[in-house]
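Sample entry follows:

_____
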Amino acid sequence: MAPLNILSVGGSRNIGYFAAVRLLEQGSTVTFLLRSPSAFDGDATIQKYVMSGHARLVKGDAGSEADTQRAWDQAGIVDAVIFTVGTYPSFSITKGLVQTPPDLCTQCILNVLCTMPTYANAPQPKLVVLSSIGLGPAAHKALPTLLKPLYGVALAVAHRDKIGMERAIGHCAGWSWDPKTDGEVPSDFLANGWTERKGLPPRGTLRHALIIRAGLLTDGDCVADKVAGTGKKSYRVSEQELGGYTISRKDAAHLIVDALTRRWNEFDNRRVNTTY
């Protein structure tokens, strides 16, 4: 497949970073929107591609619509956006586990959607978004028993944010949404009138979206690379609930790149789950 022009939002570390490096190694160009471009100062891998012009570093915050617009502008004609924004919840004595800001993913994806360009002579960019298993009532019910307390309590705040994020994408893509199965959309994340926000693609006009709901993330190796060519299986992928536990960040990145570069027809306009 021909090299791609990628906009990476949330790619300073972890899955977004691993996916970007895989794409750079394949000859693609990646524009990173980074709050701190200095995060890559000591990264020899990224610096090699900065020197060649294949990695572009744009200073800005995806929580700012203006910064997100600037990233689109500097990236040129984008083939795909890889959105892996996320943070680690912190502990507060008075509030328990909190995420700052609580609506991080929701507001950042709205900024991406509201600034997505319309090209006169190029297809609409593909949108690949990292999410999580176990979000809505149906998905939570399908979780392994040992994961239910973790997902129901420790990750509850982050998961409310991801429900808001998925709802925003689903609206623009024209997907159905049933609160009884998909989850109640937090009104403090998506307030009344949010669908009328300026620049937001009208319902059903986002044509090439993929949401990847990953299992509990680990720092393990990329199993898919290890078993390549052996006929052995690595991670599983399905639109149905899988009931699995974990997947490494490197394997989640492998899936993102594999979907974009080899198997897009399988994943276009889908919401899939992935675990071992």
Remarks:
- Residues 156-173 form the longest helix (18 residues).
- The CA atoms of residues 118 and 124 lie 7 Å apart.
